[in-house]
Amino acid sequence: MEKENGSGLKVVHRMTIIKRIIHWTLFLSIINNIITGFYIAYPFLIFGKTPSQADSPTVGVLNSGETYQAFIMTWMREFHFIGAVLIDVSFFAWLYLAFFSTKEPLYKSFLPFGNKIHETFDMVKHYFTLKNKPKTGKYQDPLNAMIFTFFHLLILLQMATGFQMYVASFTGTSAVGGWWPTLLHISTDWTLWVFGGLTGVTLAHLFIMWLIIIFIFYHIYTEIWRSIIWKEGDILIPFSGYKYSRDNLEKITEDEN
Amino acid sequence: MGADNHTKVHIKVKKLKKKDNENNIDSKIKEHGVNESRPALNESKPDNYCVNKASEDFKWDPLRNISEDSDEVLKIIDSRLNNLEKEYFQEKKDINKNFKNVFTANGVSRREFIQWTALLTSALMLPTIFAPRVARAANILTRTPFIWLDMSDCMGNTEAFLRTAHPTPAEIILNYVSVDYMESIMVPAGYQAEARRDGTVKKYKGKYILVVEGAIPTAMNGKFLTIGAKGKTGLEITKSIAKNAGVIIAVGNCASYGGIPAAHPNPTGSVGLSSVTDRQVINIPACPANPVNLVGTLVEYLLIGKAPMLDSLGRPLWAYSGRLHDNCYRRGHFEAGEYVKHWGDDGAKKQYCLYMMGCKGPFTWNNCTVAQYNQDMSFPMRAGHGCIGCSEPAFWDRMTPFEKPNADAKIFMPAVEATADEFGVALFGAAGVGIAAHAIYTGVKKRKNNKNKNKDKNKDDKLNNGDNK
Prior knowledge:
Chain B: This is Hydrogenase. Chain B: Pfam families: NiFe_hyd_SSU_C, Oxidored_q6. The complex is a heterodimer. In chain A, helix 5 (about 140-165) crosses helix 6 (about 180-190). Chain A contains 10 helices and 3 strands. Chain A is mainly alpha-helical. Chain A has a single domain, classed as Transmembrane di-heme cytochromes, Chain C (Fumarate Reductase Cytochrome B subunit), CATH 1.20.950.20. In chain A, a hairpin with a 5-residue loop joins strand 1 (about 1-5) and strand 2. Chain A has helices spanning about 15-40, 70-100, 105-110, 115-130, 140-165, 180-190, 190-195, 195-230, 235-240, 250-255, and strands at about 1-5, 10-15, 240-245. The model of chain A is unreliable at about 50 and about 250-255 (pLDDT under 50). Helices cover about 60% and strands about 5% of the residues of chain A. By secondary structure, chain B is α/β, with parallel strands linked by helices. In chain B, a hairpin with a 4-residue loop joins strand 5 (about 225) and strand 6. In chain B, helix 3 runs parallel beside helix 6 and helix 6 (about 130-140) crosses helix 12 (about 290-305). The longest helix of chain B has about 50 residues, at about 420-469. Chains A and B meet through helix 2, helix 4 and helix 8 of A and helix 15 and helix 20 of B.
């Protein structure tokens, strides 16, 4: 999907509408899950109505006074689970599209074969030398593709540890039948061995959240950096789906240098 | 009544002594006045106590649906109980007498005993039709040969079972079980004690109940624990006695999963019982284990002649299938966001949730909230302290710090001494510094490049101009 306009800039199509929806669903639900997850790990808002516990600025504002009127942990957990379901659905949609997308399947970029490794190193080199910018093509650049894949593996790990904690309260059956806890046990019980019991799984879940936060900041930074340095409008991709390419202006830039 | 019982025993022992002096081991033991209320094994009727092997294959799933053919199961259980009663009691009168000797003597009336059996039946998740059978099994249990081994432990379970001020039938049964070997309460010592133990193993091969308390050190070939006059290692003793036991029960967290002796770095190489024997072990973890769970498991074993349904960690499902957090009476305060923040604050007085005081109820499976401790009266959360997760493997490593939320625990990572949040924030800070450094570097580099470009341009312009001229 490359179009030329009068200025000589090419327009490159990068994200289909479904991919953009997945992107923003993930963004919103991850932010939601970080906030609610922090609360579940360490309940920072205390809705106690007793005077000696009134050391929270929210007491008196949010506190209604009766236990049954303030099911704050219930709501935090509820939203955490809703966010988790959205993330899981988005993850599986991403996984499908990474292989079977008709327009730009991600696997063509992230499989580290042939010149893909070379291109990755070229991009890293470019980040530190600002020279020899790799050409903008139809597909993701391999460095970004690999980092995105790593990020989705983190999401997968969060899913496994999260579902292990979720299935812990099941006693062999559920509202939808026995297959649901059985499925969760089969797919997530390995985390108990890897991380050392349910407490270890909880701590792993907490720690991976920090890796995801770091990824978010890295991701925003690189996209802004690219937009400023390359002047190709990379930051626009998740909004409109398009970015620009200056590669047909190569001659001019060569002349400039 | 208890004193009466003992005098009777002594008389009987003396009579027996006159009868057979040829068996040296037995007579030696009897001289030392061991509780010998159980009659000598009736050698003439071997079929009676050989329970039909095929009957052990029946389905037993009390949590959902006991069996497809419940009448068949009841028949099997009744015939088992009949056989066991024939084996361990001399006559029918003896059964009632035994009840009086054991329970009435300890201030438990028949009525209270029946109430307790109803409690135990429902705790075992059995229908009421089993209640009279549970009562019969509890009575038989006081006569079943029993070996209690103490490995590396603090004897906390023994103390919990034997030193109750107002014992419930569960504790009374554990006081009165026909203990052939139990280091803390047996009368014989030294060689005689061991002879007694080996005699029981020989005599009741495949029938005696083996209860092990305490972890088993395996490092240095088990030399960290040697017991008795012959200086045998705990590892040897456990292995040899477990070989011929009817049922093997690991009581307490140490025997089940290694517990505190096996806590990191575990220099003695302590392990749970299931790691040293290849036979099936029923784990009754907790620190100490609830007597109801031990007696209930033993009663269920007497009823069905095999281990009850176990979870993946070898614990009986009827006792350990519920998560403490889900059954806790403070759960409502957890959902409402009402937490105890300091010991003794107003929240503590109002019995708010102990989640922020490090309660490990969300990670622990046990029935303390249902069949409670201290004469069925209390459990940690009721007493105002959080759960420490004592029925879970490696709780000393995984559940600490006990009085802080799990999020404040140090993570197990080589060369990292930090909580998940501390380490995460440190990494996040490092990443932030890296990003900032790269941004500054980019800015400086770009400015330099631009300057160079401008210089080059100027040069080019000059050259071009010169050419033109």
